[in-house]
Write a structure and sequence with these properties.
about 375 residues; 15 helices; 10 strands; 6-stranded mixed beta sheet; binds ligand F0G; alpha/beta
Protein backbone atom coordinates (compact mmCIF):
# COMPACT_ATOMS: atom_id res chain seq x y z
CA UNK A 1 0.00 0.00 0.00
CA UNK A 2 1.34 3.46 -0.85
CA UNK A 3 2.12 6.01 1.85
CA UNK A 4 -0.68 8.27 0.59
CA UNK A 5 -3.37 5.67 1.29
CA UNK A 6 -2.70 5.92 5.04
CA UNK A 7 -3.52 9.61 5.16
CA UNK A 8 -6.96 11.10 5.23
CA UNK A 9 -7.30 13.02 2.02
CA UNK A 10 -9.29 16.30 2.42
CA UNK A 11 -12.54 15.74 0.56
CA UNK A 12 -13.08 17.78 -2.55
CA UNK A 13 -16.77 18.25 -3.22
CA UNK A 14 -17.15 17.85 -6.95
CA UNK A 15 -19.72 20.18 -8.55
CA UNK A 16 -21.34 18.41 -11.52
CA UNK A 17 -22.60 21.54 -13.30
CA UNK A 18 -26.00 23.10 -12.76
CA UNK A 19 -28.01 20.77 -15.00
CA UNK A 20 -26.98 17.70 -13.01
CA UNK A 21 -27.38 19.48 -9.69
CA UNK A 22 -30.85 20.95 -10.36
CA UNK A 23 -31.96 18.39 -12.98
CA UNK A 24 -35.48 17.90 -11.61
CA UNK A 25 -36.28 21.59 -12.12
CA UNK A 26 -34.97 21.75 -15.69
CA UNK A 27 -36.41 20.87 -19.12
CA UNK A 28 -33.99 18.00 -19.86
CA UNK A 29 -34.47 14.23 -20.16
CA UNK A 30 -32.07 11.30 -19.84
CA UNK A 31 -31.66 11.50 -23.62
CA UNK A 32 -30.48 15.14 -23.57
CA UNK A 33 -26.72 15.37 -24.23
CA UNK A 34 -25.42 17.63 -21.46
CA UNK A 35 -23.04 20.32 -22.61
CA UNK A 36 -21.40 21.76 -19.52
CA UNK A 37 -18.37 23.80 -18.51
CA UNK A 38 -19.32 23.30 -14.83
CA UNK A 39 -21.16 26.60 -14.56
CA UNK A 40 -23.10 27.69 -11.49
CA UNK A 41 -22.30 27.18 -7.79
CA UNK A 42 -20.97 30.74 -7.73
CA UNK A 43 -19.93 32.41 -4.47
CA UNK A 44 -22.30 34.44 -2.33
CA UNK A 45 -20.03 37.04 -0.74
CA UNK A 46 -21.10 39.16 2.21
CA UNK A 47 -20.39 42.90 1.93
CA UNK A 48 -20.56 43.99 5.60
CA UNK A 49 -19.26 47.52 4.99
CA UNK A 50 -22.15 48.21 2.62
CA UNK A 51 -24.66 46.61 4.98
CA UNK A 52 -23.46 48.87 7.83
CA UNK A 53 -23.86 51.90 5.59
CA UNK A 54 -27.52 51.08 5.05
CA UNK A 55 -28.45 50.74 8.71
CA UNK A 56 -28.40 48.44 11.72
CA UNK A 57 -28.86 44.72 11.15
CA UNK A 58 -29.01 44.90 7.37
CA UNK A 59 -27.15 42.20 5.49
CA UNK A 60 -25.84 42.65 1.96
CA UNK A 61 -24.47 39.87 -0.23
CA UNK A 62 -23.04 39.76 -3.74
CA UNK A 63 -23.92 36.78 -5.93
CA UNK A 64 -20.73 36.74 -7.95
CA UNK A 65 -21.74 35.52 -11.37
CA UNK A 66 -18.41 36.63 -12.80
CA UNK A 67 -17.13 33.33 -11.36
CA UNK A 68 -18.89 31.36 -14.13
CA UNK A 69 -16.81 29.73 -16.90
CA UNK A 70 -17.10 32.60 -19.39
CA UNK A 71 -17.29 35.08 -16.50
CA UNK A 72 -20.97 36.02 -16.69
CA UNK A 73 -24.38 34.69 -15.63
CA UNK A 74 -25.18 33.84 -19.25
CA UNK A 75 -23.53 30.42 -18.84
CA UNK A 76 -26.46 29.24 -16.70
CA UNK A 77 -28.93 29.65 -19.52
CA UNK A 78 -26.46 28.63 -22.18
CA UNK A 79 -25.70 25.18 -20.77
CA UNK A 80 -29.42 24.38 -21.02
CA UNK A 81 -30.05 26.09 -24.37
CA UNK A 82 -27.04 24.51 -26.08
CA UNK A 83 -27.71 21.04 -24.61
CA UNK A 84 -31.28 21.21 -25.92
CA UNK A 85 -30.20 22.57 -29.32
CA UNK A 86 -27.68 19.72 -29.70
CA UNK A 87 -30.19 17.10 -28.59
CA UNK A 88 -32.80 18.37 -31.01
CA UNK A 89 -30.54 18.32 -34.06
CA UNK A 90 -29.48 21.96 -34.46
CA UNK A 91 -26.33 22.64 -36.45
CA UNK A 92 -25.83 26.23 -35.40
CA UNK A 93 -26.88 28.79 -32.83
CA UNK A 94 -27.44 32.49 -33.33
CA UNK A 95 -27.82 35.46 -31.00
CA UNK A 96 -27.78 39.21 -30.80
CA UNK A 97 -25.67 40.49 -27.97
CA UNK A 98 -24.13 43.36 -26.08
CA UNK A 99 -21.23 40.92 -25.59
CA UNK A 100 -21.79 38.43 -22.80
CA UNK A 101 -24.45 36.28 -24.43
CA UNK A 102 -22.22 36.11 -27.49
CA UNK A 103 -19.17 35.03 -25.45
CA UNK A 104 -21.17 32.34 -23.68
CA UNK A 105 -22.91 31.10 -26.84
CA UNK A 106 -19.54 30.92 -28.60
CA UNK A 107 -17.95 28.89 -25.78
CA UNK A 108 -20.79 26.39 -25.33
CA UNK A 109 -21.38 26.02 -29.06
CA UNK A 110 -17.67 25.37 -29.48
CA UNK A 111 -17.80 22.67 -26.84
CA UNK A 112 -20.86 21.10 -28.46
CA UNK A 113 -19.40 21.20 -31.97
CA UNK A 114 -22.04 23.64 -33.17
CA UNK A 115 -21.45 26.81 -35.13
CA UNK A 116 -22.13 30.11 -33.40
CA UNK A 117 -23.27 33.22 -35.23
CA UNK A 118 -23.26 36.39 -33.17
CA UNK A 119 -24.54 39.82 -34.15
CA UNK A 120 -23.26 42.69 -32.07
CA UNK A 121 -23.75 46.46 -32.20
CA UNK A 122 -20.69 47.94 -33.89
CA UNK A 123 -18.33 49.74 -31.52
CA UNK A 124 -20.49 49.11 -28.43
CA UNK A 125 -19.14 45.84 -27.04
CA UNK A 126 -16.44 45.68 -24.36
CA UNK A 127 -13.07 44.33 -25.47
CA UNK A 128 -12.91 41.28 -23.19
CA UNK A 129 -16.26 39.99 -24.41
CA UNK A 130 -15.39 40.45 -28.05
CA UNK A 131 -12.09 38.61 -27.56
CA UNK A 132 -13.96 35.65 -26.05
CA UNK A 133 -16.32 35.34 -29.03
CA UNK A 134 -13.40 35.53 -31.41
CA UNK A 135 -11.30 32.95 -29.55
CA UNK A 136 -14.15 30.47 -29.17
CA UNK A 137 -14.57 30.54 -32.94
CA UNK A 138 -17.87 32.34 -33.40
CA UNK A 139 -18.69 34.07 -36.65
CA UNK A 140 -18.86 37.63 -35.34
CA UNK A 141 -20.86 40.17 -37.33
CA UNK A 142 -20.75 43.80 -36.27
CA UNK A 143 -23.99 45.47 -37.24
CA UNK A 144 -24.35 49.17 -37.89
CA UNK A 145 -27.11 49.65 -35.37
CA UNK A 146 -27.87 49.04 -31.70
CA UNK A 147 -28.70 45.84 -29.77
CA UNK A 148 -32.44 46.16 -30.40
CA UNK A 149 -31.84 46.19 -34.16
CA UNK A 150 -29.50 43.17 -33.89
CA UNK A 151 -32.15 41.26 -31.94
CA UNK A 152 -34.80 41.93 -34.53
CA UNK A 153 -32.49 40.69 -37.30
CA UNK A 154 -31.57 37.44 -35.50
CA UNK A 155 -35.20 36.72 -34.65
CA UNK A 156 -36.10 37.07 -38.33
CA UNK A 157 -33.13 34.94 -39.41
CA UNK A 158 -33.82 32.15 -36.89
CA UNK A 159 -37.47 32.02 -37.92
CA UNK A 160 -36.46 30.87 -41.38
CA UNK A 161 -35.18 27.54 -40.07
CA UNK A 162 -35.65 27.41 -36.28
CA UNK A 163 -34.55 23.80 -35.87
CA UNK A 164 -31.30 24.02 -37.81
CA UNK A 165 -30.35 27.47 -36.49
CA UNK A 166 -31.38 27.81 -32.85
CA UNK A 167 -31.95 31.27 -31.39
CA UNK A 168 -30.19 31.41 -28.01
CA UNK A 169 -31.20 34.86 -26.79
CA UNK A 170 -33.22 34.92 -23.58
CA UNK A 171 -36.47 34.81 -25.59
CA UNK A 172 -35.57 31.10 -25.77
CA UNK A 173 -37.29 29.57 -22.69
CA UNK A 174 -34.37 27.16 -22.14
CA UNK A 175 -32.19 30.17 -21.32
CA UNK A 176 -34.63 31.37 -18.67
CA UNK A 177 -34.90 27.84 -17.23
CA UNK A 178 -31.14 27.65 -16.75
CA UNK A 179 -30.85 31.15 -15.33
CA UNK A 180 -33.50 30.55 -12.66
CA UNK A 181 -31.00 28.22 -10.92
CA UNK A 182 -29.22 31.32 -9.61
CA UNK A 183 -32.27 31.97 -7.40
CA UNK A 184 -32.15 28.34 -6.19
CA UNK A 185 -28.50 28.75 -5.28
CA UNK A 186 -29.12 31.96 -3.35
CA UNK A 187 -31.80 30.17 -1.28
CA UNK A 188 -29.51 27.18 -0.75
CA UNK A 189 -26.62 29.42 0.29
CA UNK A 190 -28.64 31.64 2.66
CA UNK A 191 -30.99 28.96 3.98
CA UNK A 192 -33.95 30.97 2.66
CA UNK A 193 -34.71 33.60 0.03
CA UNK A 194 -33.48 37.14 0.77
CA UNK A 195 -35.97 39.94 1.46
CA UNK A 196 -34.76 41.98 -1.54
CA UNK A 197 -32.95 40.93 -4.72
CA UNK A 198 -31.21 43.66 -6.76
CA UNK A 199 -30.44 43.16 -10.46
CA UNK A 200 -29.35 45.20 -13.46
CA UNK A 201 -32.02 45.11 -16.18
CA UNK A 202 -31.22 45.10 -19.88
CA UNK A 203 -33.26 42.77 -22.06
CA UNK A 204 -35.03 41.72 -18.82
CA UNK A 205 -34.45 37.98 -19.17
CA UNK A 206 -32.56 37.68 -15.89
CA UNK A 207 -35.14 39.37 -13.67
CA UNK A 208 -37.74 37.10 -15.32
CA UNK A 209 -35.62 34.04 -14.58
CA UNK A 210 -34.85 34.92 -10.95
CA UNK A 211 -38.51 35.57 -10.22
CA UNK A 212 -39.50 32.23 -11.77
CA UNK A 213 -36.80 30.50 -9.71
CA UNK A 214 -37.81 32.08 -6.40
CA UNK A 215 -41.49 31.22 -6.95
CA UNK A 216 -40.67 27.66 -7.94
CA UNK A 217 -38.45 27.06 -4.90
CA UNK A 218 -41.10 28.39 -2.56
CA UNK A 219 -43.79 26.22 -4.20
CA UNK A 220 -41.50 23.20 -3.82
CA UNK A 221 -41.25 23.98 -0.08
CA UNK A 222 -37.51 24.70 -0.35
CA UNK A 223 -37.72 28.33 0.74
CA UNK A 224 -40.08 30.10 3.09
CA UNK A 225 -40.48 33.43 1.30
CA UNK A 226 -39.84 35.23 -1.97
CA UNK A 227 -37.90 38.49 -2.23
CA UNK A 228 -38.98 41.82 -3.63
CA UNK A 229 -37.46 41.99 -7.11
CA UNK A 230 -35.52 45.26 -7.48
CA UNK A 231 -34.45 45.94 -11.09
CA UNK A 232 -32.25 48.83 -12.23
CA UNK A 233 -31.80 50.27 -15.70
CA UNK A 234 -29.25 52.89 -16.70
CA UNK A 235 -30.81 56.37 -16.73
CA UNK A 236 -30.46 56.95 -20.47
CA UNK A 237 -31.42 53.35 -21.30
CA UNK A 238 -34.46 53.02 -19.08
CA UNK A 239 -37.46 52.18 -21.28
CA UNK A 240 -39.32 50.31 -18.55
CA UNK A 241 -38.92 53.21 -16.13
CA UNK A 242 -40.07 55.86 -18.59
CA UNK A 243 -42.76 53.59 -20.05
CA UNK A 244 -41.80 53.58 -23.73
CA UNK A 245 -39.01 52.20 -25.96
CA UNK A 246 -35.87 54.33 -26.32
CA UNK A 247 -34.57 54.63 -29.89
CA UNK A 248 -31.02 55.66 -29.03
CA UNK A 249 -30.09 54.31 -25.60
CA UNK A 250 -26.79 55.31 -23.97
CA UNK A 251 -24.81 54.27 -20.92
CA UNK A 252 -21.28 53.48 -19.81
CA UNK A 253 -22.71 50.06 -18.87
CA UNK A 254 -22.75 48.79 -22.45
CA UNK A 255 -24.15 45.38 -21.42
CA UNK A 256 -27.48 47.01 -20.56
CA UNK A 257 -27.60 49.55 -23.36
CA UNK A 258 -30.99 48.33 -24.54
CA UNK A 259 -33.98 50.43 -25.58
CA UNK A 260 -36.71 47.86 -26.08
CA UNK A 261 -36.35 44.81 -23.79
CA UNK A 262 -37.73 41.54 -25.16
CA UNK A 263 -38.98 40.44 -21.71
CA UNK A 264 -40.52 43.81 -20.82
CA UNK A 265 -43.90 42.36 -19.78
CA UNK A 266 -42.30 39.65 -17.64
CA UNK A 267 -40.14 42.23 -15.88
CA UNK A 268 -43.26 44.22 -14.98
CA UNK A 269 -44.87 41.02 -13.70
CA UNK A 270 -41.83 40.19 -11.56
CA UNK A 271 -41.90 43.71 -10.12
CA UNK A 272 -45.63 43.76 -9.41
CA UNK A 273 -46.08 40.20 -8.16
CA UNK A 274 -43.13 40.61 -5.77
CA UNK A 275 -44.01 44.12 -4.60
CA UNK A 276 -40.65 45.29 -5.96
CA UNK A 277 -39.41 48.16 -8.07
CA UNK A 278 -37.85 48.93 -11.43
CA UNK A 279 -35.94 52.19 -11.29
CA UNK A 280 -33.05 53.95 -13.02
CA UNK A 281 -29.53 54.81 -11.83
CA UNK A 282 -27.27 57.36 -13.50
CA UNK A 283 -23.93 56.50 -15.06
CA UNK A 284 -22.25 58.45 -12.23
CA UNK A 285 -24.04 56.26 -9.66
CA UNK A 286 -23.08 53.12 -11.62
CA UNK A 287 -19.40 54.15 -11.72
CA UNK A 288 -19.35 55.02 -8.01
CA UNK A 289 -20.78 51.58 -7.18
CA UNK A 290 -18.31 49.97 -9.65
CA UNK A 291 -15.40 51.46 -7.65
CA UNK A 292 -16.97 50.61 -4.30
CA UNK A 293 -17.41 46.93 -5.21
CA UNK A 294 -13.84 46.72 -6.50
CA UNK A 295 -12.49 48.43 -3.36
CA UNK A 296 -13.92 45.50 -1.39
CA UNK A 297 -12.02 42.96 -3.47
CA UNK A 298 -14.59 41.96 -6.08
CA UNK A 299 -14.20 43.09 -9.67
CA UNK A 300 -17.47 43.34 -11.56
CA UNK A 301 -18.27 45.01 -14.86
CA UNK A 302 -20.12 48.35 -14.95
CA UNK A 303 -23.57 46.85 -15.75
CA UNK A 304 -23.26 44.63 -12.68
CA UNK A 305 -22.68 47.70 -10.54
CA UNK A 306 -26.18 48.96 -11.45
CA UNK A 307 -27.52 46.46 -8.89
CA UNK A 308 -25.37 47.94 -6.10
CA UNK A 309 -26.08 51.50 -7.26
CA UNK A 310 -29.76 50.59 -6.99
CA UNK A 311 -29.28 49.17 -3.51
CA UNK A 312 -27.59 52.39 -2.34
CA UNK A 313 -30.25 54.57 -3.98
CA UNK A 314 -33.06 52.58 -2.39
CA UNK A 315 -31.27 52.49 0.96
CA UNK A 316 -30.90 56.28 0.93
CA UNK A 317 -34.70 56.62 0.85
CA UNK A 318 -34.91 54.60 4.08
CA UNK A 319 -36.22 51.57 2.23
CA UNK A 320 -34.80 48.89 4.53
CA UNK A 321 -36.09 47.68 7.88
CA UNK A 322 -33.68 46.06 10.34
CA UNK A 323 -33.46 42.37 9.47
CA UNK A 324 -33.46 43.00 5.70
CA UNK A 325 -31.36 40.57 3.70
CA UNK A 326 -30.31 41.98 0.34
CA UNK A 327 -28.64 40.12 -2.51
CA UNK A 328 -27.12 42.01 -5.46
CA UNK A 329 -26.24 39.96 -8.50
CA UNK A 330 -22.87 40.88 -9.97
CA UNK A 331 -23.67 39.68 -13.46
CA UNK A 332 -20.27 39.81 -15.16
CA UNK A 333 -16.56 40.02 -14.33
CA UNK A 334 -14.76 43.35 -14.37
CA UNK A 335 -12.04 42.04 -16.71
CA UNK A 336 -14.67 41.93 -19.44
CA UNK A 337 -14.32 45.69 -19.81
CA UNK A 338 -10.70 46.74 -19.22
CA UNK A 339 -11.17 50.06 -21.03
CA UNK A 340 -13.70 51.37 -18.51
CA UNK A 341 -11.49 50.21 -15.64
CA UNK A 342 -8.43 51.98 -17.00
CA UNK A 343 -10.31 55.28 -17.21
CA UNK A 344 -9.99 55.25 -13.39
CA UNK A 345 -6.23 55.60 -13.69
CA UNK A 346 -5.91 59.36 -13.70
CA UNK A 347 -2.17 59.78 -13.16
CA UNK A 348 0.09 57.14 -14.66
CA UNK A 349 3.35 57.19 -12.68
CA UNK A 350 6.57 56.49 -14.56
CA UNK A 351 9.91 56.60 -12.77
CA UNK A 352 13.51 55.42 -12.99
CA UNK A 353 14.30 52.41 -10.79
CA UNK A 354 15.70 54.57 -7.94
CA UNK A 355 14.67 53.53 -4.47
CA UNK A 356 14.54 57.03 -2.89
CA UNK A 357 12.39 58.44 -5.68
CA UNK A 358 10.04 55.47 -5.55
CA UNK A 359 9.77 55.70 -1.73
CA UNK A 360 8.73 59.37 -2.04
CA UNK A 361 6.06 58.46 -4.56
CA UNK A 362 4.70 55.59 -2.44
CA UNK A 363 4.43 57.76 0.65
CA UNK A 364 2.67 60.63 -1.10
CA UNK A 365 -0.96 61.13 -0.07
N1 LIG B 1 -25.48 42.42 -16.72
C1 LIG B 1 -24.69 41.98 -17.71
C2 LIG B 1 -23.23 41.90 -17.43
C3 LIG B 1 -25.24 41.63 -18.96
O1 LIG B 1 -24.44 41.19 -19.92
C4 LIG B 1 -26.63 41.75 -19.16
C5 LIG B 1 -27.22 41.42 -20.44
C6 LIG B 1 -27.41 42.20 -18.09
C7 LIG B 1 -26.80 42.51 -16.89
C8 LIG B 1 -28.88 42.34 -18.18
O2 LIG B 1 -29.53 41.12 -18.20
O3 LIG B 1 -30.67 41.34 -20.38
O4 LIG B 1 -31.29 39.56 -18.77
O5 LIG B 1 -31.84 41.96 -18.29
N2 LIG B 1 -26.55 41.15 -21.48
C9 LIG B 1 -27.11 40.69 -22.75
C10 LIG B 1 -26.02 40.25 -23.69
C11 LIG B 1 -28.09 41.63 -23.35
O6 LIG B 1 -26.21 40.29 -24.90
O7 LIG B 1 -24.96 39.83 -23.22
P1 LIG B 1 -30.92 40.97 -18.95
Amino acid sequence: MSAIAHRTRPRLIRWPGLIEHYRRFLPVTDATPIVTLYEGNTPLIEAPAIGDRLGPNIKVYFKNEGANPTCSFKDRGMTVAISKALGEGSRAVICASTGNTAASAAAYAGRAGLKAYVLIPKGAVALGKLSQSVMHGARVVEVIGNFDICLKVVRDLAERDPVRIRLVNSVNPDRIAGQKTAAFEVCDQLGDAPTHHFLPVGNAGNITAYWAGYKEYQQAGLSGRVPKMMGYQAAESAPIVVGHPIDDPHTVATAIRIGNPASWTNAIKARDESGGLIDAVTDAEILAAYRLIAAGGVFAEPASAASVAGLLKYGATGGFKPGSVCVCTLTGHGLKDPDTAMKNLSHPIVVEPEIEKIMRILERD
